[in-house]
Amino acid sequence: MNQTARIISIYAADTSGFCSALYEYGGMTVIHDASGCNSTYTTHDEPRWYDKDSMMYISGFTEKDAIMGNDERFVHDLVLAAKELSPKFVAICASPLPAMTGVDLEAIAYEVESETGIPSFNVKTNGMQSYITGAGNAFVELAKHFTKPAEKAGVGLVNVLGLTPLDFPLEGTVQSMRKWLAEHGFQVNATVGMDTSLEQIERLAEADMSLVVASTGLPLAKYLFETYGIPYVIGAPFGCEDATAVLCINMKMALAEGAKFKGVKMMVPEGARIAVIGESIMSRSLAYAIYAEYKVPARVLESVGDGFDDYDVSCDDEDELEAEIAKSDIIIGDPLFKPICGEKPFISLPHMAFSGRCFVKDEVQLIGRPLKETALGEALSKSLDQ
Asked: Facing residues of 94 across strands?
């Protein structure tokens, strides 16, 4: 049976991506689902609960609601909670059941906004896609409702897109990103997803360009390009100065050419001994860093299924992924992939969106750091020497 996992885990769903994307913006985010499911979406892969509150709720969808189409109760509860909590906005999304029964969440959001005067919107999810789709759609809806037209600053202002703990769980990630950008002559306009605010969303159009560091940020980058003419570059600044040089050059080209410039792919030569498994943008950035520092090509096995198309093979099916892994000598990926890698040298690179908090203590900060100074680089050096 295709797309059935008998050994490995699955990625966080689009509903979890929805929650992660909207966590810090002061809105009331609500998933239309059965009571008791809230923690699955909002806490399992969310380290920000330790120091930041967020208004995240579940609707308590029942069998009777599903059979009888009782949307009025949901509307009543939303209006009551919104009037009491006074959020900056109300965002709702669907789990599989209301998606299958055809609940009109757009109409519900319209009714809530009409009764409360609070901006309300639906983010399209169905619980069957990955976190990339949910977070990406949420960021776009946020921009559609709050970003204001503005003149470009012309001083190298950058929107960093795709920052959520599902891909970047380490504390200090945003600070590392800001440091790398400042060292290369750029200024941060907004960090969409983390260390952020609704005010940053309002001024997204002031940026001269966007840097997309993970696939969750790509839909927003495309929206800002199409709506405000803001060019975007794709890639995360992983590795040494030589590894990030191409990314930096592309960003400067984007600033120089403006709306004529769109994102480019980071190419790695063929003949790979190494396979990097995971989300495509971060995996390709790591593969490029490996080639820059070790002169050994690496291929990208995109394993999420709905990320950016910069990969060598897309393998969201376990059997296909296992077959592709067999073609490489060294594997880099989340530890939960190890059982399908046989006896091949395996280098751990935990991914919160895949294994949750199981291996968070083994996370590695790769932004603006030579790989050879990290535990991942040390393990890679030993594997290459064998």
From this structure: 32
What is the rounded CA–CA span in Å between residue 283 and residue 298? 10
Burial 123-146 (b: 16+ CB within 10 A, else e): bbbbbebbbbbbbbbbbbbbbeeb
- Of 356, 364, 367, the C-alpha closest to 47 is 356
The pLDDT, as a whole number, for residue 1 is 47
For residue range 244-274, what is the model confidence (pLDDT) as tens digits?
A: 999 999 999 999 988 888 887 777 877 778 9
Q: Which helix (H) or strand (E) holds 32?
A: strand 28-32
Distance CA 106, CA 111 (A): 9
Q: Low-confidence residues of the chain, pLDDT below 70?
A: 1-4, 36, 38
Of residues 78, 80, 88, the one with CA closest to residue 32: 78
Dist. CA 301–CA 44, nearest whole Å: 25
Residue-by-residue DSSP string for 295-330 = ---EEEEE-SSSS-S-SSEE--SHHHHHHHHTT-SE
pLDDT, one tens digit per residue, over 124-142 is 999 999 999 999 999 999 9
Instruction: Retrieve residue 366's tokens.
Output: 């790769």
Rounded to an integer, what distance in angstroms lies between the CA atom of residue 262 and that of residue 170?
29
Q: What is the 3-state secondary structure (H, E, C) of 225-289?
A: HHHHCCCEEECCCECCHHHHHHHHHHHHHHHHHHHHCCCCCCCCCCCCCEEEEECHHHHHHHHHH
Per-residue model confidence (pLDDT) at position 158: 97
Taking the C-alpha atoms of residue 94 and residue 98, their distance in angstroms, rounded to an integer, is: 6
Say if residue 253 is exposed, middle or buried (CB neighbours under 10 Å; 0-12, 13-18, 19+): middle
